[in-house]
């Protein structure tokens, strides 16, 4: 029984708007003027779901008139056969061209009634049979009708689910494959006709090679079919045969384009196999190898066609080695895009930004670069190749899926637009063409949703997919890693061969067999991870070969990769960000400190792609996030663990920027100092929070390098502690409480760890190691007034409040001001005493066997020489030269020169020496992964330190330059410090 709610009162209920629609429905016998005629309601509901119900109804009327008395059979079939109903009404509502065909050949409707899916195997027999024995116009006419009938059959299956949602959905890939197979069948039928028309055709052998979309089995409804011909025997006859085939197919089915042949339209239509081979070896340009990617023998002599592939195929997979291959392909895509008319660029489905060519060029470039070493990528079809790139890890899974969906969507739109009039078009409708947008949306299976019309849904989806394509195209097509991979010789991509071992030796790997073991471990198996590593390693091996320690770098890369094996973004980052690969290789092949930190702070790896994120932070505020984060933890162990973790991240970030030459020495030293201060402050706050009642205020005074903000990677934190009793608490209880807190802080920070040590050194306190760890402010006042020694005044020159109670710290600094800057300067005896102490340090503390000319701290012209010189001048003159009152060595030097205490040339010599020694000392830690003051004199450590110092080409020149710089400084020190 018919549902009254669905009973229409007019044709408009079925989406019909034409004034003649009621008349046409009555003529078909489907409507009596008030409601559907008996049994016809399913037809009308299918009609209403057609992309254009009015167009479909008009097509039905034309077919009805053409059938005449035979209409009854079709009418009955439409009532009972939902397959026929969905196919016919969808085709008639989508394509005026196919409607014309069915009106001219009305009995062909029976092709659409077969419930079985169309079989590509039937195409060639049907088309060849249609032209059997025919030539000339008769053959063209017969081929045209049979080709159009089969095209209609494919379109019917493609569209049927639109009108009848329960019918089978045919994917874009299947439709494109069927269209390609139909084109191949048409070429074979046309060649069959040509063999009958061309005299002496048996005196030659001809093979037809499909190129482009036909070769890749991704043809459109309307498209040129690109071909190349290869012949043997009489090439003149073969040329006439090929030309005739092109004419027959062109008049009956589609244009056959042979412009992709060697030398293009100016070249011979048919060449021998040797002629093709010679051309591609000597003259072919980059784009011609790109075109060969889709070559496929489809007609004529199969054996000759296969031999053609055997000859040119290997050339395709070495094309990426050509000079400037990647830039050539990228430039070609830009030229194609530049030729799109400006007003149509956003609507051009094929050539515009975010169009089909964006996908195809990106996929083909990735294939040609990576397919040299991975045969699974040697697939001509775009969607299948994209899936293989995703499986192999050359493209991220999400990116591959998004790219594939967007490509299929755009190709489906292209198919629907071409079906409408069977014209070659790639132009998306204008935004204001509502009727066309609605028709295209419905033909593509889109429905109104969320208050949006079909046209609005289509526009939103089109823009989303086009933007998605463009974003992914720019990400993949211009990926810096592509050029690096392309630069690796093809044989080097096969990493486990003997040739690879020889290549590793040639690149400078000291232990090629060991390197191969690392490579094997990283690429073992068939996992996605192994595939990505296989793509990355050839590039990394070349990059590491340019570093001071390729073997150590490769080992470090293996360690990092194994440690981060379960980190989902790690390999994806390396694959997608060429800058990261370049920088990581430079770091791993130079430093042993970086990989140790990296396995425990992998998040810093992301910053290698972002220079501003890596080095753009203000060093004076670098510790704020650390202090803020740690302050959230009430549990002491968790607080200290968080502080260590954040310090590790910052240390790795600073070291990476330093090694890559992206930051100044001052930035490095200030950053390291402020991170240390933040850790100390955070640990002190955490201990105080968890200790119970606060019995004293505590201030931490930075001394030495941390006081001067001159900390290096291997420096301890020299500090002294001062406390002040809380109200109602005795000084002895306050000192006891503060000492317990300080001891706990030192114990927590110095606990065993894989990170660089966090050693809090309080040996510069009054009385040194024999003195109490913590004193009250008044105790310091009394001690400095009565007992302070000259070395203690000198140590206070770099004192600076760094943590704890700021008011107490400020009062301590006021207290020590007259101690470190004595009002009368130094008398001659004190100067002699400082010189004596310095000479004793040189004689006794320089390690046995150390080279004084290469010891960065205690050697001639080293750090101690410069710093003692500045400190002597401060003790002598700071009472009258306020600018000398600074904990900074460099600022002290500058102030001394400005005050006339040394010449500008002397200041420059000392400054250069101090900076050189500081950088060298930092480089030693970065390279060796542990503190050290003695510069290496041979081997890869020397090469690495020299590289960090900017002397990568000649490590010996670095040592000479270091000695020259420090020697000049020592001469100044002999005059200024020792008074010689």
UniProtKB/TrEMBL annotation:
Organism superkingdom = Bacteria
- What protein name does the entry list? Bifunctional glutamine synthetase adenylyltransferase/adenylyl-removing enzyme
Function recorded in the entry: Involved in the regulation of glutamine synthetase GlnA, a key enzyme in the process to assimilate ammonia. When cellular nitrogen levels are high, the C-terminal adenylyl transferase (AT) inactivates GlnA by covalent transfer of an adenylyl group from ATP to specific tyrosine residue of GlnA, thus reducing its activity. Conversely, when nitrogen levels are low, the N-terminal adenylyl removase (AR) activates GlnA by removing the adenylyl group by phosphorolysis, increasing its activity.
GO BP of this protein: regulation of glutamine family amino acid metabolic process
Q: What would be one Gene Ontology cellular-component term for the protein?
A: cytosol
Which cofactors, by name? Mg(2+)
Residue ranges of every copy of the PII-uridylyltransferase/Glutamine-synthetase adenylyltransferase domain listed in the record: 332-477, 853-977
> Key word RNA-binding present in the record?
no
The EC number on file is 2.7.7.89, 2.7.7.42
Family listed: Belongs to the GlnE family.
